[in-house]
UniProtKB/TrEMBL annotation:
InterPro entries: Creatin/AminoP/Spt16_N, Creatinase/aminopeptidase-like, Creatinase_N, Pept_M24, Peptidase_M24B. Residues 156-358 form the Peptidase M24 domain. CDD domains: APP-like. This is Xaa-Pro aminopeptidase. It comes from Streptomyces pseudovenezuelae. Pfam families: Creatinase_N, Peptidase_M24. One of its GO terms (molecular function) is aminopeptidase activity. Residues 17-149 form the Creatinase N-terminal domain. Keywords: Aminopeptidase, Hydrolase, Protease. Transmembrane segments: none annotated.
Length: 375
């Protein structure tokens, strides 16, 4: 999260989020929330320390009490500049003092607390040692909906990030692929994402030919050849909110089989998208997309879940996966990204970010989903 530009929200926005989070914690039977630097802290306060270090920084939210950010003395001036700082109290601790004792003074000594998923184990263990009567739950398990449902202002930022990713695809399809290294096309993608307003590039996958069969191949030194399928998957953060889209292009004219597999993935992506509406379980999106691929006999080649949530990070709950019974709620944003991966040969993935509306899904990526032929 370091280096990301926080979103353009005011202290009042952050105050409202912290109040809502504290209320939700109380409703979930928690004595409070403990939030370490990372996406939850960014979302609640706008504070992203320039470096996440071993020194304890922790937001303490407890129902009925003002929020407190425990922060190392040397980082307090920086924290005081965060957009949400006017909505909280800073409590600094100096090197040589016990940060867990300082934090414990703010906590109910027998409570159960929600802890942000990415808090360091050493800090949680330090608190537990200081307050042996406390217990802890992972924040995304205790309050899975805290960041998942976006408000209107957040949805606008998500749409703008999606539009910037679309603009990136419209430009990348014009560059030469054949004869260049994956890493060179990847650098083009990163440059375009930045040109269209991203402050952080999280991934630029350029997976050509057989590399396309590995869903998380990033980029390598392979030289892209005529006849290659190339999976492009790129995204990052623009004004604090994420983009993530995939398109698969072909260098020169594709074979019938390549077209057929691409059409299949496109139909699966469409089916997943059409399954999106309020009240439907996340797993139904996965089932709808997967059924198309299974029915065509390619089920064993679709080797990952259909999608993941996105917001102030590019991968987060909820997950579109068999077994996830969480219902879709208007304002949720997630990817629908089925793929087929033929080992040693090629892969195809098509991915859009979709948001849930009252009437169904709305795509935040709208570039061509037909197989695009590149040079
Ligand atoms: Zn080919
Ligand atoms: Zn992606
Ligand atoms: Zn994705």
């Amino acid at each position: 999260m370091t280096g990301s530009t926080p979103a353009p929200f005011t202290a009042d926005d952050y105050r409202a989020r912290m109040e809502r989070a504290a209320r939700s914690a109380a409703e979930a039977g928690l004595a409070g929330l403990l939030v370490a630097p990372g996406p939850d802290l960014v979302w609640l306060t706008g504070y992203a320390p320039t470096a996440i270090t071993e020194r304890l920084t922790l937001l303490v939210l407890a129902p009925g009490r003002a929020p407190v950010l425990v922060v190392p003395t040397l980082e307090a001036p920086d924290a005081a500049k965060a957009a949400g700082a006017p909505a909280l109290n800073l409590r600094d601790w100096t090197d040589g003092k016990d940060p867990y004792a300082a934090t414990a003074a703010l906590l109910d000594s027998t409570g159960r607390f929600g802890v942000s998923d990415n808090a360091w184990a050493m800090h949680l263990l330090g608190l537990q040692r200081t307050l042996p009567g406390t217990t802890y739950a992972a924040l995304t398990e205790a309050l899975p909906m805290l960041r998942a449902v976006k408000d209107a202002a957040e949805l606008e930022l998500m749409a703008a990030a999606g539009a910037a990713a679309d603009a990136t695809f419209e430009e990348i399809r014009k560059v030469p692929f054949g004869g260049r290294k994956e890493s060179e096309v990847g650098a083009d993608l990163a440059g375009l994402l930045r040109r269209f307003g991203h402050s952080q590039v999280d991934f630029t996958i350029v997976a050509s030919g057989p590399n396309g069969a590995d869903p998380h191949h990033e980029v390598g030194e392979r030289v892209i050849e005529q006849g290659d399928m190339v999976v492009l998957d790129f995204g990052g953060l623009k004004d604090g909110y994420g983009s993530d889209t995939s398109r698969t292009v072909h260098v020169g004219e594709p074979t019938d089989e390549e077209r057929r597999v691409h059409d299949l993935v496109r139909a699966a992506q469409e089916a997943g998208f059409r399954a999106v509406r309020p009240g439907v379980a996340c797993q139904e999106v996965d089932r709808a997309a997967r059924a198309v691929i299974v029915d065509a006999g390619y089920g064993e080649y679709f080797i990952h879940r259909t999608g993941h949530g996105i917001g102030v990070t590019t991968h987060e709950p909820p997950y579109m996966i068999e077994g996830e019974q969480q219902s879709l709620v208007p304002g949720m944003c997630f990817s629908v990204e089925p793929g087929v991966y033929l080992p040693g040969r090629f892969g195809v993935r098509i991915e859009d970010i979709v948001t849930v509306t009252e009437d169904g899904g709305r795509r935040l990526n709208n570039t061509d989903r037909e197989l695009v032929v590149v040079d």
